[in-house]
Design goal:
The protein is mainly alpha-helical. Helices cover 50% and strands 6% of the residues. It folds into two domains: 314 residues, Rossmann fold (3-Layer(aba) Sandwich), CATH 3.40.50; 51 residues, no CATH class.
């Protein structure tokens, strides 16, 4: 049996993939995790059958091992970052099923998240991917897309792969999506998962305003540098106090109204899929009726929340740089004794520097003296 996890984006896909990658095959009850087998289209997303026969033979061999195999790639259906979301979803699903179905039994698992939360997270992820789009424009692009109504997503997927091969799961913020996916696979994890693995969390609303302006000024492709800065240098935005939104109140209301109607319809459509849970979707629809709009963070630096975040990030960055600076300069051999040693025995001085570097900068082990 082949299980293909399709996302959607911003529904804990990276956490699922990280857990499956880190866990042993014994910890997965013998199930093999094979990533995407090189079948996804880079950057723009989509499903791409193998172009070379040896690639196809290697995949066939993996699928015929006699054990369960799991693939996970949210880009198989396309991407939602650049205007219209998942424009080729149905075509990608048909190509995927046409390739896998003749080789093995296959089922597809997809997680859906209420649109108000999903849109916020999708916008902030788009900023992390170098875009500098205004939140209003991004929201209008989403609202004009066919597949923002997830009922259409499920209907078109069911038509392409067969409703009996499609599992649709609800995702809500804070849920243990890794544990839920292991339950779908029938894995009794020997390592108790007590909380969601936060592998690809979005920036906060104030951080998103800052990042949008950074992307507008610095248009280079320094994705890794920006991601490292926000995740490891300044850390996550404070969640205390009033929760803000990246979208104006009117757009928040529009997302909420669309979601209430859509999730009621989803309950009926999901009931026809494999192991459908219509009641879970009806419960979410009922909760959406009580959703209140959050204060709009704004689109510039005039918001006190954004100004507070800028000060916090500068403080954190300066503290990190000062810590790095202090970890370097006191360790160097200095003074008359060091100068004398350099003249009489340069090798001993080099050994001393190497030793101190090893003590103060663990990563230097990789480069110095090995």
């Amino acid at each position: 049996m082949l299980t293909v996890h399709l996302g959607l984006h911003k529904t804990g896909s990276t956490s699922i993939q990280a857990y499956l990658f880190r866990s042993s095959r014994a910890g997965r009850d013998g199930i093999r995790f094979e990533g995407d087998l090189g079948l996804s289209v880079p950057k723009v997303g989509g499903f791409q059958p193998p172009r070379e026969s040896r690639h196809d033979r290697a995949i066939t061999k993996v699928l015929h091992t006699g054990r369960g195999v799991v693939l996970s790639q949210e880009n198989f259906l396309g991407t939602p970052w650049f205007g219209c979301i998942y424009p080729d979803l149905a075509e990608n699903a048909r190509k995927m099923h046409a390739y896998f179905a003749p080789k093995t039994d296959v089922r597809y698992v997809i997680y859906l998240r209420p649109q108000p939360q999903w849109a916020e997270s999708a916008y902030r992820q788009a900023l992390r991917l170098q875009r500098s789009v205004d939140p209003e424009q991004f929201a209008y692009d989403l609202l004009s897309s066919r597949y923002l109504r997830f009922t259409h997503v499920v209907e078109d997927l069911a038509e392409a792969v067969g409703s009996e091969n499609l599992m649709v799961r609800p995702y809500t913020s804070g849920m243990n999506v890794v544990g839920d996916f292991l339950a779908v696979l029938g894995i009794q994890s020997k390592q108790k998962i007590t909380q969601q693995m936060d592998e690809n969390s979005s920036n906060g609303p104030a951080q998103s305003v800052i990042l949008k302006h950074i992307n507008a000024v610095y248009t280079d492709d320094a994705y890794n540098g920006k991601t490292f800065f926000f995740r490891h240098v300044v850390g996550s935005e404070s969640q205390s106090g009033v929760k803000h939104s990246s979208f104006p109140d009117a757009l928040q209301t529009e997302f909420a109204n669309l979601a209430m109607d859509d999730w009621q319809n989803l309950a009926e459509v999901v009931d026809k899929t494999c192991q459908g849970q219509p009641e879970a979707f009806r419960d979410i629809a009922a909760n959406l009726s009580t959703l209140q709009a959050s204060p709009y963070i704004g689109n510039d630096f005039s918001s006190p929340k954004v100004q507070e975040e800028i000060v916090r990030e500068l403080h954190m960055a300066l503290a990190q740089f000062w810590r790095i600076e202090r970890s370097w300069w006191p360790t160097w051999p200095m003074g008359r004794r060091a100068a004398t040693t350099a003249v009489r025995n340069p090798r001993a001085l080099a050994q001393s520097v190497t030793y101190r570097l090893r003590r103060t900068w663990p990563r230097a082990h990789r480069w110095i003296g090995r």
